[in-house]
Each structure stands twice: as C-alpha cells, then as structure tokens.
C-alpha cells in the first residue's frame, strides 16, 4: 500500500511539471496492448538505430534466458548470408524484472538498401531499409509520443510518408515508473521502428529516478541504446551521428550541461570535428525547447540555452528540434532572443499524442522570433534536398487525417555565407 502511494505521488509529480492553468483539448485514452502469449523466446519490441558508418544496431527483447543473441540478415528474403552476435542486458525496477534485452550491431550494410532479418534465430522475418549515402534524405520527426489513440494516429501518418530516419526529441513511452508500459510501447512502435532507424534522445518521462532506490534512466538506457560510444560520448544521454551529408547532435536536457560538464566538453569537441564540406547540414535535437511562446514549460530551457546556445550558434547549427511542450511552434532564424540571419530555426514538436493532452495557451503578443504556432497533435517531415535547400512541413492530425498545416523552404547556413563569417 505504501509503495502504491509513493508511486502515485511520483507519477503525479512527474506528470504535472507544468502549471495547469490552460485548457487542453481532450487527450485520448492509452491503447490497451495485451501481453503476447507466444513462446517466451519469441523476439518482440524490435527496433533499429544507426550505429556508425554503414552499421545499424538491432534491439529486441525476449523472456528466454537461453535464447541466442544473434541477428541473421541478408538482401534476399529467407536467405541470410550474414550473422551478428549481440550483447545482452536486463534490469529490475522495484517488483518488475525486464526480459532479456539484446543489442546486436549489423554491417557493413549497403546504402539505401532493403535488408531482411530475423532476431534470435526465430520469429518473423522483418525488413529494414538503410538510409541513402547522399542527398536527398528525409526525416520523420515526432516527440512526446506516449501510447494513446492520438499516438496511433501520428504513427499511422508517419507510416504513410516516405522517410529514411525517425528523429524523436524525447518522451517516448510515458511509462512513468510502470515498467510494463515500456514493453507495450515497444510493441506499439515495432512496425515502424523495426523498418527505419529511430534516433532518440531523452525527455523528463525517461528519468524515472527514485531517490535512494533507483538511479535515473535505468529503463531508457537499457532499452534504447544509441550510438554514444561510436560518437566519442561517455553517456547514452548525448551523442551525434552522421547520415547523408547531415551531422545531427542529440543533446540531453536532463544531463549536466554547464560549461564544466562532460556533456558541454563533449559537445565542444564534437562540433570542432564537423566538416561542413562533408556534412553541409548541421542539426541539433533536445527535449526542452529554448524558444517557446507557449505558457506550458515557459522558461524551463533557459539555463541550458544560456550554457549551450553560443556553442551551437558559433558552429552555425541550421535547425534545432525540441519537444516537451505538447504543441507545435516554428521560429524564424534567431540567436540570443533576437532575429539573426546566422541563427538556427527552432522547432518545437512535442505533439506526438501522449496522454496528457495539448498545451493550448500561448503568450501574447506573439514574440518577434515566433513565426507559426498551433496546439494540435501531428508530426513533422524534413526533406533535405541538397547541400543548400531543405523542405520542412508539419502535418496536423485533423480528424485522424494528416493535413499539411505549415511548411517552409530552408536555406542552409553554409549556402547563406554564415559559415565563412565564423570568428572561431
Ligand atoms: Fe517532456
């Protein structure tokens, strides 16, 4: 009973970070996903992520401690001419014990190619497509997903669009301490996440820290291993990767970010290695937005912005994608609160569909830097056409139909002369 009370208090604290003085449209209910009663060694919750040049990491979970940690794969259905052995982990969390979590890196893989694969020597054959090596490349973007009817709607719309990589700026499952919700989330996203790489960073709902009992990010780090080692980072909470002429930095809003922190040092080092001839586009993702004119989470990103915005500006980051606020907002090019032709475009896209509903109230008047804002569920698509031009569009979940409601052509800062003007 005591445990239930503690959990309830923790859940309330975690889900009411904002003041609830705005009226949100009705959230949809959490989808009921019953536990699958197939064989215990049956692989489930399969998802893939990029893991260094021409490699991908396949992650899956089963309940059989003796099941092999192998991925068989090849370019023809049913004919696997390669096999990779993985590593395994598991964790316990209060009364919950996870299944066996497998991570296996496959490759080298050919670019822009379909591969057939099977996890653990059994289960269904799955398919994935590797990203292209050159432009054009397309990204799907949706944060704060959760696992409600709205999440399903968003995922259905993403499935309809042609994209190469999914970018998720934090808040995945909304498990909020109830660990079986990580399992149901894994099953909900498997059809998409097993077919295209999902690159994620953490949000507040991934923390799940219980003082004196549990460290933070136990579930997230065990289940959603990202290529931090491949990018010279010592933490799964921040890393970078490169794909088809784009360098993407995934930062941690819930890891230390002050100028003496490991994350800050890593970011500085990572930015110094970016070669804009090889990767003309430079993107950054993190959870808590720096430019937000919604009343929800107002000012929460201020400290991180103060510490890190000068680094991103100096490196001429083209585009910043954040979540956390359950709505959509796009800025003009901005730096230090002022319009700046060499600043980044900031987009808040925490509107994936979670159970907390929308953040519907905005500060008035609309700040100078804010170009478009709307509280609706939806997803974004970023098509980088070439080294100079990209097309961004935001698709609202109107009555379960995706409706393009905002779009803009972006010109890279390389092409705007900003990179050549850098002082350092
Ligand atoms: Fe959040």
From TrEMBL:
Single GO term (MF): acid phosphatase activity
EC number: 3.1.3.2
Enzymatic reactions: a phosphate monoester + H2O = an alcohol + phosphate
Gene3D superfamilies hit by this protein: 3.60.21.10, Purple acid phosphatase-like, N-terminal
Cofactor: Zn(2+); Fe cation
Record domain Purple acid phosphatase N-terminal: where: 43-123
Signal peptide segment: 1-19
Keywords for the protein's UniProt record, in alphabetical order: Glycoprotein, Hydrolase, Signal, Zinc
Sequence ranges assigned to domain Purple acid phosphatase C-terminal in this UniProt record: 344-401
SUPFAM superfamilies to which the protein is assigned, alphabetical: Metallo-dependent phosphatases, Purple acid phosphatase, N-terminal domain
Enzyme class: hydrolase
Domain Calcineurin-like phosphoesterase: 138-328
PANTHER family noted in UniProt: ACID PHOSPHATASE RELATED (PTHR22953), PURPLE ACID PHOSPHATASE 18 (PTHR22953:SF155)
Family: Belongs to the metallophosphoesterase superfamily. Purple acid phosphatase family.
Protein name: Purple acid phosphatase
Species name: Lupinus albus
Organism ancestry: Eukaryota, Viridiplantae, Streptophyta, Embryophyta, Tracheophyta
């Amino acid at each position: 009973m005591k445990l239930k009370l503690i959990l309830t208090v923790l859940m309330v604290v975690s889900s009411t970070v904002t003041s609830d003085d705005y009226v949100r449209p009705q959230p949809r209910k959490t989808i009921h996903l019953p536990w699958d009663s197939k064989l215990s060694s049956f692989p489930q919750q399969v998802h893939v992520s990029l893991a260094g040049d021409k490699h991908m990491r396949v992650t899956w979970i089963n309940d059989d401690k003796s099941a092999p940690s192998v991925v068989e794969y090849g370019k023809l259905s049913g004919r696997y001419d390669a096999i990779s052995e993985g590593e395994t982990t598991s964790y316990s969390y209060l009364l919950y014990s996870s299944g066996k979590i497998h991570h296996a890196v496959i490759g080298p893989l050919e670019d822009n190619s379909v591969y057939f694969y099977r996890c653990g020597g059994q289960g269904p054959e799955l398919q994935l497509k590797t990203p292209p090596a050159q432009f054009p490349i397309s990204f799907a973007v949706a944060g704060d997903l959760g696992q409600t009817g709205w999440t399903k709607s968003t995922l259905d719309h993403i499935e309809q669009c042609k994209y190469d990589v999914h970018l998720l700026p934090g808040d995945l499952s909304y498990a909020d301490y109830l660990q079986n919700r990580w399992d149901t989330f894994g099953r909900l996203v498997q059809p998409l996440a097993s077919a295209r790489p999902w690159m994620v960073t953490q949000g507040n709902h991934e923390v799940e820290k219980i003082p004196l009992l549990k460290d933070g990010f136990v579930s997230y780090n065990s289940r959603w291993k990202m290529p931090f080692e491949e990018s010279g980072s010592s933490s799964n909470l921040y890393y970078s990767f490169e794909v088809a002429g784009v360098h993407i930095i995934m930062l941690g809003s819930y890891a230390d970010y002050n100028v003496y922190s490991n994350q800050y040092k890593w970011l500085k080092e990572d930015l110094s290695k970016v070669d804009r001839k090889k990767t003309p586009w430079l993107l950054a993702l993190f959870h808590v937005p720096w430019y937000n004119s919604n009343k929800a989470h107002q000012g929460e990103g201020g400290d991180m912005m103060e510490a890190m915005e000068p680094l991103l500006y100096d490196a001429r980051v083209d585009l910043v994608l954040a979540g956390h606020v359950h709505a959509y907002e796009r800025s003009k090019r901005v730096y230090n609160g002022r319009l700046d032709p060499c600043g980044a475009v900031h987009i808040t896209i925490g509107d994936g569909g979670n159970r907390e509903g929308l953040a519907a109230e905005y500060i008035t008047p609309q700040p100078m830097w804010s170009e478009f804002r709307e509280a609706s569920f939806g997803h974004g698509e970023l098509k980088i056409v070439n080294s100079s031009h990209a097309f961004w569009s935001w698709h609202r979940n109107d009555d379960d139909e995706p409706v393009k409601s905002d779009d803009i052509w972006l010109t890279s800062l390389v092409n705007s002369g900003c990179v050549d003007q850098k002082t350092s």
